[in-house]
Design brief:
This protein has about 250 residues and is α/β, with parallel strands linked by helices. The chain has one domain (about 10-195, about 230-250): 3-Layer(aba) Sandwich (Rossmann fold), CATH 3.40.50.720. It has 9 helices and 7 strands, in the order E-H-E-H-E-H-E-H-E-H-E-H-H-H-H-E. The longest helix is centred in the middle third of the chain and has 29 residues, at about 105-135.
């Protein structure tokens, strides 16, 4: 069964740039009002300007998702100004800390997990009651190919652990909510040319590991990446279906 998204409300994290921004714009084009959440207010404002140009409705919600109080405030602001949320796109993530695990600061490792996993769960749990009451909701957690191949990118332990945990959380929550009308799925966006990828390429090879640096530099040099817009376009059609507990990939047709 398919459902139109027009007239619904979405909260998109990481909406200031990259996949999050592209997804928010795709949603706006589909008639969805979007709450744009990220740390960088200036980037969110640029996304909101583009939504407005498309004739859509956007709300700028600057927030540090590593702080649970900020998560709660973002939800409250969205509910107050746009109404209840129908669609949650958890895109915000950090790739740091990088490098040999023995040199990683444990506090940075924990901070990465707080953003990449804890904030995702906190947003989902807080928005679930209203979705369940209406018997309709869509939660999408943006994952990574590293979750299926955690040994493939040495030097990214926090990111690998976080994305693997994210997919387990997704599938378990989907099973819990089966039949409720609220779906929970993960999305593997593919190898996307984003600021995060550029940041990794800009790091010193000796600091993050020569093999890791070379992998990302080679992918960029070979033109193997897709654009954020291409990735987002492959995600949007999935939101109209009732499929749940799945891991979608940008390379798969919808």
């Amino acid at each position: 069964m398919t459902t139109s998204l027009e007239g619904k409300t979405a909260l998109v994290t990481g909406a200031g740039r990259g996949i999050g921004r592209a997804t928010a714009l795709q949603l706006a084009e589909a008639g969805v009002a979007v709450a744009l959440v990220a740390r960088s207010e200036d980037q969110l404002a640029e996304t909101a300007d583009r939504v407005n140009e498309l004739g859509g409705t956007a709300l700028v919600v600057p927030a540090d998702l590593g702080e649970l109080s900020e998560v709660s405030r973002a939800i409250q602001q969205t509910n107050d100004e746009l109404g209840v949320v129908d669609v949650l796109i958890n895109d915000a993530a950090v790739v740091w800390p990088l490098g040999p695990s023995v040199s990683v600061d444990s506090n940075e490792w924990a901070a990465a997990i707080a953003i990449n996993v804890v904030a995702v769960a906190a947003l989902s749990f807080a928005l679930l009651p209203a979705m369940s009451e209406r018997n309709w909701g869509r939660i999408v957690n943006v994952s990574s190919g590293i979750a299926a191949h955690p040994g493939s990118m040495i030097g990214m332990n926090a990111y690998a652990a976080g994305k693997a945990a994210l997919e387990a959380h997704t599938i378990n929550l989907a099973a819990e909510l089966a039949g409720s009308g609220v779906t929970v799925n993960a999305f593997g966006p593919g190898s996307v040319d984003t600021a995060m990828q550029a940041w990794i390429r800009g790091q010193e090879p000796a600091q993050i590991g020569a093999a890791l640096h070379e992998r990302f530099a080679r992918s960029y040099a070979e033109g193997a990446m897709i654009t954020p817009e291409q990735s987002a376009r492959s995600l949007l059609p999935h939101l109209s279906s009732d499929a749940t507990g799945q891991i979608w990939n940008a390379s798969e047709s919808s």
